[in-house]
What does this fold into?
Amino acid sequence: MILVTGATGLVGSHLIYDLLIGGFQVKALVRETSRRDLILQTFRYYSSNAEELFGRIVWAEGDVTDVLSLREAFRDVDKVYHTAAFVSFDPKDKQKVFTVNTEGTANVVNLCLENSGLKLCFVSSIAALGETEDGAPVDEKVQWKPTKEASVYSISKFKSEMEVWRGVSEGLNAVIVNPSVILGPGDWEKGSGAFFQKAANGFPFYTLGTTGFVDVRDVSKAMIQLMESDISGERFVLSSDNVSYKDIFSTIAWALDAKAPYIYASSWLSGLAWRLSALKSFLFRTPAQITSSTVRSAHKKSHYSSDKVKGVLKFEFIPIEQTIQDIAQYYRR
It folds into this structure.
């Protein structure tokens, strides 16, 4: 039996689909308030028998921050995919980000150690990687270093990785993946799904920052291959292409027959936007849509290398242009 945390998320739902069609038994960890229909929605993008596949899922109600419910979920499990995370760059969410991401991962690692023989795959992020001084592509060897500009999310993912490495030092069989920005069909109101929502509505702004992007199907595929291998105690960057935000939004707009972005959001304009967003958040007690961290990321030029996973697994990534075309079709549906 395989346990998947973060089951209703973009990675979790795609991973469960791939595991089920691969013939594995899957137990999905969900909270009482989780939208299980998001998993079924994901299945319907790819299968005509989505309901039948959905019916094979074994449900475990609980939370990675609740050790008692988590311990119950670990019953009869031999592999764990830990995809659960709280993604926020809003400073007001600092405590929740650390509680879910770092403490939650520590709980998962501790229970894996309690149940000898388990193998763990932890979904980290490129946010937990360092930066190169000469602009060379970032790979698994580049160590994260604390800076004043580091986001709460980045710090939490770094500390989460440290919990996994602690487990490895104590004998845990584990692998870590560091995906770049993950694209895939899912909740169109959140995460990268909002890219398509914004583009469809004619989002006019763009920045010239660059980062890595990867298809969620590749993330799931690589995770399963790593878990079914003898590889342990290693981490792998998962990134298909390094693309500017301008090109990403333009390609999405083209795929949706929408207007491409045409207003350059300079550092000054972006800075004004996040300050206004912070003021609105303070006045109306709503989440900040733009933060100083997201603005820095939008203008930052970073490149990532997946040469390691390509070499070890002979892995081939889906080109991001193809990913965008596929997602656009799902979005139209």
In short: The longest strand covers residues 173-179. The radius of gyration is 19 Å.
